[in-house]
Write a structure and sequence with these properties.
By secondary structure, this protein is an alpha/beta fold. It has two domains: about 200 residues, Enolpyruvate transferase domain (UDP-n-acetylglucosamine1-carboxyvinyl-transferase, Chain, Alpha-beta prism), CATH 3.65.10; about 210 residues, UDP-n-acetylglucosamine1-carboxyvinyl-transferase, Chain, CATH 3.65.10.10. The chain is about 30% helix and about 25% strand. The chain is built from 13 helices and 25 strands. The strands form seven sheets. It has a four-stranded mixed sheet with strand order 23-24-1-25, covered by helices on one side. The protein has a four-stranded mixed sheet with strand order 2-14-16-15. Strand 15 and strand 16 form a beta hairpin. Helix 7 runs parallel beside helix 9 and helix 10 packs parallel to helix 11. The longest helix is centred in the first third of the chain and has 13 residues. Bound molecules: uridine-diphosphate-N-acetylglucosamine and phosphoenolpyruvate (PEP). Uridine-diphosphate-N-acetylglucosamine binds next to helix 1, helix 4 and helix 5. Keywords: Cell cycle, Cell division, Cell shape, Cell wall biogenesis/degradation, Cytoplasm, Peptidoglycan synthesis, Pyruvate, Transferase. Cell wall formation. Adds enolpyruvyl to UDP-N-acetylglucosamine.
Length: about 425
């Protein structure tokens, strides 16, 4: 078993380069299935989720050539091989195989997804979308079976503006007959990134990034080259870590606009934040005022930064309230932070956090962002060594985390028992 060991108490200082976005990459990889020729993705993050996805594509018959931050996918030999089990169970975004295979072949069998299960994460809106396009969808022993003689465009109103459902419907509809309109679509930057790739592959998608997306189905799609957008959640995690350790960090290769909700909150609590063209500098202060935070869909404060933010709020004076309006029970990090001395209680969909010092402890990450929260908490503790297990979750979403933190002056290392 691997652990992260953190001897904290050192302010982070220096520059960190942010990799491409996980939540884009793991949608762009299956999107390549819709092309008839090679797709090249640049700025690919080096993450376990990406490794699992490339393995899935290879199992389907794609020729994959991954070298550092670039991947070339030749999907010309891909077949819709049933995948009720195996690697699809290892990550959440395997649900995109449903839309991509359905869109290209009119059929797919994909096991229900795995990934971070901090609470039940239904996919009813994805299925509603596939059915509206003309597919029959059944759940047989935990695997979703999809079949359509032909897919026809439809008007689909999403009950919740789901990132996954919006992207999955775009994938299925890109090569359908006629026009599809997604209403109440999610507006996250990763959706624009997927639409940009699909359009470069020959699709006709308008309105990505707004609540109405219109897709005119095309007969064929082809290869192209695309550079993945920077990972706003990794960037936000380093911003929070810089503030929590009272450091001074330049977070480079970011789109500052994607981080406005976090930037505004940091400034409100007394952190100095400077936005540059493609980077953000975060300069910590000796003390911070308490703030209330509401995690919402984009452009609101991201739920994926809610857990890391909890750790920062333990460093504020007074009581902060952090509520999650996307995932009401995403609080598995709280008991672990309490183990480290945090004064936090969960009330409904909110965590009530009373500021105060933390101490080193042995804690366990139950999901990716809970892991990030525990690492940040450990970085604030000046005596003793915090041990974080569940490193496999952290590796799903943080490219070279230990190397990056060490380069910023943190005393962090991996230890295998
Ligand atoms: C791979 C990926 O991109 N993961 C992100 C994606 O997850 P994911 O796409 O799974 O999250 P969604 O945007 O779909 O979920 C948003 C909300 O809608 C609900 N819902 C969703 C789909 C559905 O069919 N029915 C339904 O009720 C969910 O329970 C949740 O309360 O967006 C989340 C919200 O920003 C992020 O936390 C995840 O990091
Ligand atoms: C919840 C997350 O990812 P996934 O949806 O892939 O589990 C995340 O990135 O915080």
């Amino acid at each position: 078993m691997e652990k992260l060991m953190i001897a904290g108490g050192r302010p982070l200082r220096g520059t960190v380069q942010i990799s491409g976005a996980k939540n884009s990459a793991i949608a762009l990889l299956p999107a390549a299935i819709l092309a008839e020729s090679e797709v090249t993705l640049d700025n690919l993050p080096q993450l376990s989720d990406v490794a699992v996805y490339t393995h899935i594509l290879e199992e389907l018959g794609a020729k994959v050539n991954w070298s550092n931050n670039q991947i070339r996918i030749d999907p010309s030999e891909i077949k819709s091989i049933p995948m009720p089990n195996g690697p699809v169970k290892k990550l959440r975004a395997s649900y995109y195989m449903m839309g991509a295979l359905l869109g290209r072949f009119g059929e797919a069998v994909i096991g229900l997804p795995g990934g971070c299960n901090f609470e039940p994460r239904p996919i009813d809106q994805h299925i509603k979308g596939f059915e509206a396009l003309g597919a029959t969808v059944t759940n047989e022993h935990g695997a979703i079976h999809l079949h359509a003689k032909r897919l026809r465009g439809a008007r689909i109103y999403l009950d919740v503006s789901s990132v996954g459902a919006t992207i999955n419907i775009m994938l299925a509809a890109a090569r359908a007959e006629g026009a599809t309109v997604i209403e109440n679509a999610a507006k996250e930057p990763e959706i624009i990134d997927v639409a940009t790739l699909l359009n470069a592959m020959g699709a006709s998608i308008k309105g990505a990034g707004t609540e109405t997306i219109r897709i005119e189905g095309v007969k064929e799609m082809h290869g192209c080259r695309h550079s993945i957008i920077p990972d706003r959640i990794q960037a936000g995690t380093y911003m929070i870590a810089a503030a929590a350790t009272r450091g001074d960090v330049l977070i480079d290769n970011v789109i500052p606009k994607h981080l406005e909700a976090l930037t505004a909150k940091l400034i409100e609590m007394g952190v100095q934040v400077e936005e540059l063209d493609e980077s953000i500098r975060v300069i910590g202060a000796d003390s911070y005022g308490h703030v209330d935070v509401k995690a919402l869909v984009y452009p609101g404060f991201p739920t994926d930064l809610q857990s890391p933010m909890t750790s920062l709020l333990t460093q504020c004076t007074g009581v902060s309230v952090l509520s999650d309006f996307v995932y009401s029970n995403r609080f598995k990090h709280v008991p672990e932070l309490v183990r480290m001395g945090a004064k936090i209680r969960v009330e409904g969909r909110s965590a009530v956090i009373e500021g105060g010092p933390l101490n080193a402890a042995k804690v366990s990450a139950s999901d990716l962002r809970a892991g990030a929260a525990l690492v940040i908490a450990g970085l604030t503790v000046s005596e003793g060594v915090t041990e974080v297990t569940g490193v496999e979750y952290i590796d799903r979403g943080y490219d070279h985390l230990v190397t990056n933190l060490r380069a910023l002056g943190a005393d962090v290392w991996r230890q295998t028992e």
